[in-house]
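Justification of resources, computational component.

The compute hours requested in this renewal are based largely on the per-chain cost of generating structure records like the one below. Each record pairs the submitted sequence with a full structure-token output. That output is archived, and it is also reused by downstream analysis tasks.
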Amino acid sequence: MSLCLVYFLGFLLLSLLSFFMSLNFMSLDYMMILEIEMVSVNSSSVVMSVLLDWMSLLFASFVLFISSMVIFYSLEYMGGDLMINRFILLVVMFVASMLLLIFSPNLISILLGWDGLGLVSYCLVIYYQNVKSFNAGMLTALTNRLGDVAFLMSIAWMLNFGSWNYYFFLDFMKGSLEMEVIVFLMLLAGMTKSAQIPFSSWLPAAMAAPTPVSSLVHSSTLVTAGVYLLIRFNFCMGENLKIILLFVASLTMFMAGLGASYEYDLKKIIALSTLSQLGLMMSILAMGGYILAFYHLLTHALFKALLFMCAGAMIHGLGNCQDIRFMGGLVKLMPLTCVFFIICNLSLCGLPFLAGFYSKDLILEVVSMDNLGLYTYLIYFLSTGLTVSYTFRLIFYVLSGDYNYFSLQGISDLGLIMLKGMGGIILLVIFMGSSLSWMILSTPYFICLPLLMKMMTLVVTLAGGWLGFELAQLVLSYKSKSLEFIWSSMFFGSMWNTPYISTFGVNFYPLHEGEKIYELMDQGWSEYLGSQNFYYSLSMWSKFLQIFHSKNLKIFLSLVVMWIIILVFLII
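The structure output for this chain reads:
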């Protein structure tokens, strides 16, 4: 109890300090790199570098604020856990790794934070120890290891520069072969951490972790680490890499939206919405709008953290049930939590004047202005429509209708500590979007578009809401039993089969093929033509020779007779 409160207050104070420092740095257009000498032996020194600018300080303040609220929320959510102090310390290690990554201009210290996130996330995903958690944890850890390999290779490539402080080389090494290779490796690392195609399957699997961890992971840590890293490296990203990133990120955004429309697990729906928003951030970053990507990163962190907290309160009240088909009518039972839930969902959809609207609408209008072709335009607006679709489907299942679970239930809004933790974020979800736009965008964007294109965001939002409602109704009807619907839900609901490819594709099928080859070759043809055949031939020859040895006198006389006959014939 006391440990939770200590970290809650500490993180809250540090968050406020970091926020006001960020405002100061922003107004002065100021940046500072501190170099702290850790060890010095003879003339060799190990230096720890810290990068302080408005971006790192502002992001750190959001990370600290959300983690403080999550720790306070965990006080009640994890109250029945005998090892709650261990859980809190794991969360603190997680946040510390993220802060190390945010403040580092040095690839070595970033790797420490990067690997710290991977390791602690594994410990948190397997926190509830069962087979499902172990599998999910292993998938998470191994997918992230691919990014770590790319990171290590980029560290080796930076030996060409004589220093690992990437910040010094972003400008004047731009365009060189070394920097292009390093940025490509960073892109690969960022794609694994931020779960872009084909590394998407670990993100929904990581939902095996406790809900406060999901709230932290999906808002401001782990999955956003890849986006933040690419924002830092965006200055020297070549055009070809940007096109690849745009294509992959837009596909991820579309795939996640489709997957969430067929999903029934409450936490997985919200996880897939995170994946969709990560695709949005990555794709606008690929178009050169790194400030817009960072702006959406911050607004998304707020409403996504609260969305998971609301989901956690519902799951907590329902006795750990996560299937939305068992919910329904919760607005009557826990009204305040449901109000928070609706506000966050509407912010995710981009309802005007909530936090998500300011960044999302701006991104869509910037995309409308860019001359990028029909594919990008269509997939952006389709994905936006799908976001509204699965959100309204979720609201329909969870809040409306009748309560579908046990009649003996204790679900209510009486969890005061959880409500206070959620109440700490709700004001920011409502007001922080406009505040951030005044802070980050020094000159307001004025986007002049034709009326139809200007209204397109509103049109796809309304169409998506209608589609979500119709989808929810369809599943309740007889048509959902049709074979076409079942096949489409199996394909789209499983994220275009990426989980099968990531697990069976790299594990089961190679082992299965290896077993077949072992049977055919090692114990088949190679055995028949190799050692067994050799043994068979030798044994036959030895048996033949044994006949000679067992009847040696007869054979000797016979051979002498044969030899004489041959000589006679030769002489004649």
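The first strand starts at residue 32 and ends at 41. The CA atoms of residues 58 and 391 lie 29 Å apart.
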